[in-house]
Amino acid sequence: MNAIKCDRCGNYFDCNQLRLRGGSCSGESFGHISVRGENNHCCNYDLCDDCVKQFFDFMHDTSKIVGGESDI
Ligand SMILES: [Zn+2]
Question: What is the whole-number distance in angstroms between the Cα of residue 24 and the centre of ligand 1?
Answer without folding.
Answer: 25
